[in-house]
Amino acid sequence: MTQPPNNPGPGAAHDGAPAGQGPEPVPAAEPGPGRRRPDRVLLGIVAAIAVLVVVALSVVFLRGEPQPLDESSPAGVVQRYSRAFIDSDTAAAEAYLTENARSRCANYYGNPEASRVVLVSTTERDDTATVRISIVHAAPDGPFGPTEYSEEAVIGLVKVNGQWLINELPYNLHTCTGGVLKK
Fold first, then answer.
1. Which of 8, 45, 53, 175 shows the greatest Cβ crowding within 10 Å of its Cβ?
2. pLDDT in tens, 66-101
3. Could you tell me how far CA 163 lies from the centroid of its own chain?
4. What residues contact residue 130 under an 8 Å CB cut-off, 6+ apart?
5. CATH of segment(s) 74-181
6. What are the helix (H) ranges across 95-153?
7. Total-model pTM
């Protein structure tokens, strides 16, 4: 029968050395002065904040284009015209104008002045409609960096052969193939 090895306690002799002269057992690692172990709750809070920031950024950058409105409605026509106007697609924009609106241009050389158009309200009658919008203009060089300002405007539409067309536009949303806008 063999006996288990003798496990001497602290202060006992090791390798035949008298007590107090041998290597002492190493205590568990304690953080140094001024250093603490990370708190699990704090790590959880930081992780939750990081997740919220990622979700917020993905919503902002991945929200995409606005839903297209019904193209047979006055607001849908104004939405499509505004998109074509902002994209400088004159041919597409002019497809939404009446002959009266197209004939208002002569010797006009201008560039699109709106960076965004926001629908405010729509009033539809039998053969006419008005769409109230907010035109947002962006200016890249303000005293405190890029700036924006907006103005409200009204677009008048008429029904021609069952289709809504734009008859009256604010000056800064008028697309002309060339020339000066007649007032």
1. 175
2. 678 888 899 999 999 988 888 888 888 889 999 888
3. 34
4. 74, 122, 123, 154, 155, 156, 157
5. 3.10.450.50
6. 99-102
7. 0.57
